[in-house]
## 1
Amino acid sequence: MKALILAGGYGTRLAAIAKNTPKPLLTVADKPLIDYAVEKLRPVVGLTEIVVVTNNKFYENFLQWAKSHTGTEIRVVNDGTNTNEERLGSVGDLNYVWSKERVADDWLIIGGDNLFDQGLEVFMSWAVSKEPAVTIGLYDIGDIKAAVKFGVCALDKEGKVISFQEKPEHPASSKIAMCLYYFPKETLGYIEEFRKESNTLDAAGSYIKWLSEKKNVYGFNFSGKWYDIGSIESLEDARAHFKT
């Protein structure tokens, strides 16, 4: 199994402090955000490699960062884009990386700007038990008004996703999708089906919504703390309250 950390964004909402620093390399508690993802990934059983996908603008930044890490191999991939207007989007970056891999593997996907304190061991046990279905990480943010910014999810009693609303105007709940996905190798070809039907490979939420309607997708509920570092306010909140 391989892990993919999504780090291809340009941090436009954090431009004041992230103009020359990619968002995953901004620090919380004196540690880059992406380091927390790597620490969560290292104990995962069967993980052979961590891949970081970024853009041409920040490629060198991540190469320098990767040199400071030992243990599980870390490989940095350049998606070739130079501006926010050129960006491939999260699903586009998934497709870019997967299309270049010579051997099909199971993939654990994590957003480089996601920050959470619960480990991945129980999530992975649950996800493997649901193979060959896709499994996504879910978190209750406890604020139904704030859920308009996310993908809102509902599960049946078996944990299967029965409803997925991408940034709904009127959310049905405050349970939202984290940027955390497990794709067994049998599911990697679905992305081409999605591209042909939707003619886009941008937002991950749109892809998860499509998957939940066409295939089997299961959700795993995370607890503890979780932050989506998408603005200066959320970064400041994490810096004030997240403890290692």
## 2
Amino acid sequence: MPNVVKGSKQERMVVVPYRPRQRFLFTAVVLAGVLISALGGWAYGYYKTLVSQETIQADRAQLVAELESAQIDNADLRRQIAILDRASVVDQRANEEVQTTIRTLRERVAQLEQDIVYYRQVVSEETVDTGLIVGALDIGATMEPDRYSYKLVMRQEDADGDTFLTGHVNINLVGVQNDEQVIYPLREISEDQDQLDIRLRFKYFQNIEGELALPEGFEPDRIQIAAISLEPVEKTVNQDFSWVVQGE
């Protein structure tokens, strides 16, 4: 019997059989369970990751497809806009050309109507005056400011159709510039005339026409016509016309 100290608490001893194989087996089972759980968790996580990646790739592919479709639509819209812009420019130019043509035709018709009037006057008008006379003087506005068209008609009254009238005419524009009276010969303000004495030679009438540009600060008042015929009879014609612009 073992030694026991008197008065101490006695614990009951249990006798357990010593089984080293059973303990090793238990430990192995526990470790296997832990390993299986770890592998199961890793496999589940890997599976979820694959599913998530597949979903992301599918969404990405869909977004890429939508982006490509949007880019194609955008390119089509850009082409349509470019086509519409070109069509608009073409229509605008065509409209401008039509308006210009209409304006030119109207001016041509007006000029032809004036010529008809002049021709009728040459053929049918009767007057006591004979020889060189001033038929008409017209001043018209142009598209440019301070630039005007002019047309002077010199006629031979009672012409027989066989005799040429010869001579010359001077045309001067009289007005005010810097509070002073100024006279400009036609050749100084019109590129269509290069002679001070404009030569006359015609049977029935002669048109002197072109465009003139008013000098800066010049206010026109009247136009002086001084003409001389040498044949078939000598005659001098002096006549003033007020500065009147048609259509104003």
## 3
Amino acid sequence: MKKNYLLLILSLVFTFSLLFAGKANAEAKLIYTTDARTNAVAEKIIQRCSDEDMTQEEKLRRIYMYLVHHMRYSWSTGSTKVHVSKKEINKTKAKAAVLGVSYSSEFRNRYKNVRTLQGTCYGMSKVFCILANHIGYEAHMCHGTHVTGGGSHRSSHYWCYVRINGEKRYFDVQYANRCYHRNRNSSEVEACYKSKKHAKYWRRHYRGE
């Protein structure tokens, strides 16, 4: 009886492995962090704000809007808001093993920002990069200056870009987050989403790469 039960479990695991493997072939390269808990948190956030049947770009937009709505600007990492259990961590590990993801330690200094949903422009950009990489995009940080004070002052700033169909598209989660929470300015939120480098808005407000 125990032998039959064990065989049933093994067959189910094998079946699900094949399903995951088939899905992995259809997806872009997934890049996870080297911290298992952070990966489980990223998985949980993505599940909260997107559905399995969405396209990759639809998921990216949902992730962006989720961070715009839920992250808080803070120099402190704060306390953990997104909790995951050991079971959820092990589940994410198993999924990663089947999908054959790549691991990166690039964002190791900002893992806690993902768990707390707090950070400065640097932390918010890191969180967006982690989540974008998690769904199969190539995402990187940018550093330069951003126009503030009605165009009279340039301050040091971080944002990020994602390669979409081979083209760099720029995202500024922190500035969009500030616009949303201060005055619910939807036009600014949209302007900070997937902008092209040569777009009028981006050329006027940003310097650097």
## 4
Amino acid sequence: MAIRQITDNLVQVTKFGIMNSYLIKEADGMTVIDTGMAGMEKMIIQAAQQQGQAIKRVVLTHAHSDHIGGLDALKSAVPDVEVVVSEQSARFMAGDMSLEPDQAEAPLKGDYPSVKTRATQTVKDGDTIGSLQVVATPGHTPGHIALYDQRDGSLIAGDALQTLGGVAVAGVIRWLFPLPGFATWHKPTAAKSAEKLLALNPKRLAIGHGRVLENPASAMKQAIAQAKK
């Protein structure tokens, strides 16, 4: 496990060198983005303690097990924590795996575990959570969201892209780390979402799998071009 200070407001927690969670400093406490796999909640709590802030809320980019696996344990340790997800991810967490009428009829992929914890708030594209702007980014999963920190241009994009094994849009297989590609619901939708993220002109790209990428525009453009071939 490793804890890395990325900016004054952004902390990365990594397990096994491949799975990331993030903590965002806010005026009212710490926002956790994704709880990672089971067991990562202990390092997340430690990272918050190192920053001198209590954990106020958890925001989940999507409902795959490597992003919500530590949720129940974190909720048990911090009972009053808020849990914020997209409406569709909230349904997935409750066992309703239905797609929206306007979504691609493609099979869901990846592991969607059963969790006891339920969302306390659902969000949609354009909403704000403290300093974070919610960006709907379906593709890897139908209800996937990313979070854009309007203070410093940090983009926490879940599995909309990866940098581990090479920069890639969800659905493109990077054989050094192919799991995000194999677990992607609909690659064409993921490519459109990546274009939406690029349009934000982020200063850094923080993702679920891989290192944080500074000045990511060029790499994102190349990854999008490959995804659209």
